Amino acid sequence: MDGLLILAIETASGCGSVALTQGGRDQGRLLAELSHYPRRSHSRQLLSLVQQVLQAGQLDWSAIDAVAVSQGPGSFTGLRIGMAAARGIAFAAGKPLVSVPTLDALAAQLPPLQEPVCTLLDARKNQVYAALYTTAIRDEFGLPRRLGPYQVCSVAFLLAQVTEPTVCIGPGITACDTAFLNHPLIRVTPAAVTLPRAALIGFCAADMLGHGAVQTDAGPLYVRASEAELNLAAQDREAEDPQV
User: Strand pairing partners for 191?
Assistant: First the structure.
C-alpha cells in the first residue's frame, strides 16, 4: 500500500470516531474506523477504540507514520480529551502529531464544486461555528482553500454574508432556522451523512504532511472563549468597577 499510514482521532462533536487511513483524499484507503456516541464523555472509550482500530487493521504502533487529531472548533470537553489522547499516543509511539481544523475536514468531504462551501458546527447558545471555502482550489497543504476566518456567530449574521449560491455541510445545519434553510441561495447537504469523521481527519493529515507540513500540534481551536474564561473576565470587570 502506498501513502502515509495515519491513526486519526475525532472528538469535536458528540459522535466521536477513530480511524486508520492510508494516503490522502485523492487515492487514500480507509483501513478501519469505529464510531461511538458516549453518554457522558469520550474519555472512557477512546483508547479502547484506538486499540480496536489497530487490531482491525492488523497493524502495530511501529507501522504508523503519524497521529492526527481533529483540532476544532467544537465541544470544548471533547476537543481537550481528543487532543490529550493524541498527544499521549504520538509521544509514546515517537510519531509526529498533526492537528486538522474540524471545519476544514468537513469541507474536504465534498468534491470540487463551482459554488462556495460553508461548513457548520453547532456552537449552541443560538450560534454556529462556520467557515467559507472553495473546494475547487486547494491551499498550500492540499486542503480546500478557506475564504475567510473561522467564525462563531448567529445564523442570521452568517446568512447576511451569503451573496451567491452556497453549499452548506455539517451537523450545524440542524441548528439553523427555516429562514436559513429555505433561503434561495442556500443548498443544504443531509446533516446525518456529513458528521465530522476520523477518516477525513486522517486523509487531510496525509495531504498536509505530503505538502510539507511538519508536526502541527497547535492545541485545540476553540474560536470563542470558554464559560470559565467568560466568567473570569466578568469577575475581573466587577473587581475593577463594582458598579458594572
Answer: none
| Three-class SS state of 65 | coil
Q: What is the pLDDT of residues 122-136, one digit of tens each?
A: 999 999 999 999 999
Place of cell 477504540: 49
DSSP-based three-state secondary structure for 244: coil
166 secondary structure, DSSP code? E
- Domain spans, the chain: 5-104+195-230, 110-193
- The reply to whether 110-193 shares the fold of 5-104+195-230 is yes
The structure's pTM equals 0.89
- Kindly state the DSSP code that residue 194 receives in the 8-state scheme: -
Q: Per the CATH hierarchy, to which homologous superfamily does domain 5-104+195-230 belong?
A: ATPase, nucleotide binding domain (3.30.420.40)
Given its phi and psi angles, is residue 137 left (phi above 0), alpha (psi -120 to 50 degrees) or beta? Answer: beta
Does 110-193 carry CATH code 3.30.420.40?
A: yes
Distance, CA of 96 to CA of 78 (rounded, Å) = 21
